[in-house]
Amino acid sequence: xxxxxxxxxxxxxxxxxxxxxxxxxxxxxxxxxxxxxxxxxxxxxxxxxxxxxxxxxxxxxxxxxxxxxxxxxxxxxxxxxxxxxxxxxxxxxxxxxxxxxxxxxxxxxxxxxxxxxxxxxxxxxxxxxxxxxxxxxxxxxxxxxxxxxxxxxxxxxxxxxxxxxxxxxxxxxxxxxxxxxx
Length: 182
Known about the structure:
The strands form 4 sheets. This protein has a 6-stranded antiparallel β-sheet, with no helix packed on it. The chain has one helix spanning 2-23; strands spanning 51-55, 61-63, 74-76, 85-90, 96-100, 106-109, 118-121, 131-135, 142-147, 153-155, 166-168, 178-181. The protein is built from 1 helix and 12 strands, in the order H-E-E-E-E-E-E-E-E-E-E-E-E. It is α+β, with helices and mostly antiparallel strands. Residues 51-181 form the Ricin B lectin domain.
């Protein structure tokens, strides 16, 4: 009788674990966004004039107020101000710096981890200031901006003015899609 009870308990918990396991997502990780053979986009340097850097999800633009090194880069309603204008500086091999038209400083991320903040800093030949553009699938003219140092993508969470841009693992999240808008 004791063995039969143990078998029933084992069968019950085995069925329960199988059911719970079936309800869990196959993977908590997002699908790989950038195929292993994806090549950075060769940006048209004729279009290297200062433009808005607009997020597809929020429809807002990257902004860096003031001229201090370390100034946070945030999103804000797109207005015709130079602190929202960014130009491409070609660094070769499809890598670019993004230079703010107001401050003359470059976009970088501090560190290599997820959620590392995007800030402006004096434009130097530092790899954390280098970005590659990758086509965002299904949205011609929109791109992932991948930091060369961290291999993570620029993202902004939500649609509020003043939200800081950060980096995160590249995935097909619409808040990682950026466009250069005149």
